[in-house]
Design a protein that fits this description.
This protein is α+β, with helices and mostly antiparallel strands. The protein contains 21 helices and 8 strands. Among the domains are: about 120-265, no CATH class; about 405-480, Homeodomain-like (Arc Repressor Mutant, subunit A, Orthogonal Bundle), CATH 1.10.10.60. Strands 3-2-5-6 form a 4-stranded mixed β-sheet. It has a two-stranded antiparallel ribbon with strand order 1-4. It has a two-stranded antiparallel sheet with strand order 7-8.
């Protein structure tokens, strides 16, 4: 038996200051979520008041500043850091938030989100909390849930999800993939799939062992999903070599599945898209302003500030703690708005062509481009652009919409995937109805304009914008002609 001994080990562990944790959380919230969060904090902290409830006296600002001095000490700001390198505490952090600080006062109508039913996100997060996920896997699973689109598909790549966890959590791609497979088995099964084919395959693999037709159904969804979607029964018989009864059984099993499992939780008809950022043109320049609701109009409560000055003992300790929390919140809100404004303005500066000429002029853009331009980490840009919307003269768009991968050009340059999709749409809209363009022909026409897009790339982009294949379009044109 080994003798007991003492061993000294050095380990590195990332620890975030409470105010930085709060700032990261605030940056992830959209306008409605921010309003709900602030309301919860105000109800729990007596030192904070909405401006309409606070006493409007000339001495309030002086009292707020003086109250901050009561707990001011050299160590108060020793661990205050920006998301990357900016100073945390600004001169206005302890001033009342009654003014708009130059932000736009347009479009101030409040839109209320429908909360009458459980959303897909809430449903999945509840399952994650109840499931046996360890601490790290639970964080990865939550990031996956926040990366889902309205239909329940995974909108971000594994690499993007991994990068969104930095710098707080450093994981490998295989760790994200392992958690993704677990999330896909949550209810509804098949959620967080990359496309309909993967979604159906996940549901088929979750079927009880020995389910009739399951093996053939898996083969059909893996190799012949386009024929299944086109209901090309004779072609499937010829390609698979299966008998008629087995094929019918497999097809019936596939039809019972849900290729878009998130649609049952879709409440888009009862929701509003509320912009967090507004764009307008002034003197041939595009100007970015934040929503007025980004400035919640908070101020310190004068009564409790006076009470803090006159009290002592446990009462003073409690009020000092709440005062520090209030100061952190005001500072975090200012940092959130400053970061969101910088990110949005950088996006606008990069995508001026889109604002002037539409999708056809969209430029390639990745998170790294913005992070290098404004001097923050890529994860900060990712948080600032997730589930936040920008109102432009061309409509309202999610900030992530302006990020696009690129396609090579003949000259060695790049053109954005969004611009390429717009070009494909224009070509198809002007194609001859008797002879619709094939993906190969579209690829050739794009090459003539200088864009190098392979046939598979054209097919991928065409499907992503909801346009059928040339054979499907030919049948549609014939039906329209008959009627």
């Amino acid at each position: 038996m080994a003798n007991p001994s003492l061993q000294l080990r050095l380990t590195q562990k990332l620890a975030l200051a409470p105010q930085l944790q709060q700032a990261i959380r605030l940056l992830q919230l959209n306008r409605i979520e921010l309003r709900e969060y602030i309301q919860e904090v105000v109800e729990a902290n007596p030192l904070l008041d909405h401006d309409e409830y606070a006493e409007q006296e000339e001495g309030d600002q002086v009292e707020s500043s003086s109250a901050s001095e009561l707990t001011e000490s050299p160590e108060d700001h020793s661990d205050q850091n920006d998301f990357d390198s900016e100073p945390w505490q600004s001169d206005s952090a302890t001033e009342p938030w009654a003014e708009n600080h130059g932000w736009s006062d347009e479009f101030s109508e409040r839109q209320i989100e429908d909360t009458s039913s459980t959303s897909l996100r809430e449903h999945l997060l509840t399952q994650i909390r109840l499931a046996h996920f360890n601490e790290v896997d639970a964080v990865i699973a939550a990031a996956i849930v926040y990366a889902l689109d309205e239909e329940g598909f995974l909108a971000d790549s594994v690499a993007e999800i991994r990068d969104s966890l930095l710098p707080e959590l450093q994981v490998e791609d295989n760790e994200v993939i392992a958690v993704l497979h677990r999330v896909q088995r949550l209810e509804p099964v098949g959620i967080a799939s990359r496309d309909a084919a993967e979604c159906i395959q996940v549901q088929l693999r979750a079927q009880p062992s020995g389910t009739p037709g399951n093996d053939l159904a898996l083969r059909l969804t893996r190799d012949y999903l386009d024929l299944v979607a086109a209901n090309a029964y004779q072609d499937l018989l010829r390609e698979t070599g299966a008998d008629s009864d087995s094929l019918k059984q497999a097809l019936e099993l596939i039809r019972e599945l849900e290729p878009r499992p998130g649609t049952r939780y879709d409440n888009r008809r009862d929701e509003y898209l509320v912009p967090d950022v507004y764009i307008r043109q002034e003197d041939n320049e595009w100007v970015t302003t934040l929503s007025p609701e980004s400035n919640p109009g908070l101020r310190l409560n004068k009564y409790y500030i006076t009470l803090l000055r006159d009290s002592g003992g446990k009462d003073a300790e409690y009020l000092q703690g709440r005062l520090q929390e209030a100061r952190w919140l005001l500072s975090s809100l200012e940092l959130r708005n400053r970061t969101l404004l910088k990110v949005s303005q950088s996006i606008v500066d990069h995508q001026k062509g889109f604002l002037a000429d539409g999708e056809i002029a969209m430029k390639p853009l990745i998170l790294k481009d913005i992070s290098e331009k404004i001097g923050v980490h890529e994860s900060t840009v990712s948080r600032a652009t997730t589930h936040k919307y920008m109102l432009t003269p061309r409509g309202i768009f999610e900030l992530k919409y302006f990020f696009s991968s690129h396609v090579r050009t003949v000259s060695g340059g790049t053109v954005s995937a969004t611009s390429t999709k717009a070009s494909i749409r224009v070509l198809i809209e002007n194609e001859p109805t008797l002879q619709p363009l094939s993906d190969q022909e579209i690829s050739r026409l794009l090459l003539e304009t200088g864009t190098c897009a392979a046939r598979r790339t054209v097919a991928k982009y065409r499907e992503s914008i909801g346009i059928g294949s040339s054979s499907e379009r030919r049948r549609m044109y014939r039906r329209n002609t008959e009627f």
